[in-house]
Amino acid sequence: MPPDILPDEFPERTSIELWYGARKQPNQESATKPPPNLRAEEEGTGMKIAIQGEPGSFSHEAAMKLVADAVIVPFSLSADAFAAVVNGSVDAAAIPIENSLAGSVSEHFDLLHNNFIVERETLLRIRHNLIAISGASTSEIDRVFSHPVALAQCRRFLAAHPRMESYAFYDTAGSVKQLVELRDRHAAAIASEAAAHYYGAQILHAGIEDNAENFTRFFLVRRAGEVAPDPEANKISVAFSVENRPGSLVSALLELSTIGTNLTKIESRPVQGKPWEYIFYVDCQIHTPEEGTRALNALRPHCSMVKELGRYREALKPSQPAS
Known about the structure:
The chain has three domains: about 35-125 and about 215-225, Periplasmic binding protein-like II (D-Maltodextrin-Binding Protein, domain 2); about 125-205, 3-Layer(aba) Sandwich (D-Maltodextrin-Binding Protein, domain 2); about 235-310, 2-Layer Sandwich (Alpha-Beta Plaits), CATH 3.30.70.260. It is about 30% helix and about 30% strand. It has helices at about 15-25, 30, 35-40, 60-65, 80-85, 105-110, 150, 155-160, 170-180, 195-200, 250-260, 290-300; strands at about 50, 70-75, 90-100, 105, 115-125, 130, 145, 165-170, 185-190, 200-205, 215-225, 235-240, 260-270, 280-285, 305-310. The protein is elongated.
């Protein structure tokens, strides 16, 4: 469908059908003519970084924060982004691993377990905005599209505007892309400021998230063996599994406590095909590389599997000064 035709001109199809139908069958003009800044990235010479989601997403922003001259390579699925790292078509992937409000991204823990190393991390302040096409006004908006997590983080704003009905979409930046392609002046998207600029849309309301302490932690992951040791690393991520017997997990964690390692996060994920067996993921602060090695050695007598996922510098909150 040409991008300059409004959904209102197709009475036989609802506006919602147009949104989701166009997502399945993107118009050819937009597919062959990416925005100018996307073309510039494609011509770049920096490290190729895979992201899940559309250009202009929070993952895109985090990737550029992690690697300033990165060439962004977007994928629809996280598994495809990881696969691109494995097959060498990209150098690394920038993945969200944890949000301060929504919690962990479980799928990424599962994918991270297979031959990947965390090279570095960053924290991104998540600031949501109500975005519409140029010329549209708040009074015209009756439906809002975004990723389900973004919608959930803007409940107060949506409750204050009951005329706006919310709809889950596959990606925050993708909702802005769709908005611009359809030229739907009665719809809005919730996404980042970068997405609005990227697709030429306008921000109607900035900072509409319920909680300002909204941060997402991103990892830059690479193939195992391609990450050089960082002598200033002060954090280590480890995956391990314990035998299914009383006290095994407590014994493993007690060993970390005994050597003075500060455990900052623990996450459990089920082992596929083995009911009631789990892989545990932990983050620990370390003062020296040797302390990281001691932590690994302390876990091994109590665990059936221990795998280092990376040693890297701990990310600071954007407003937190470096010591």
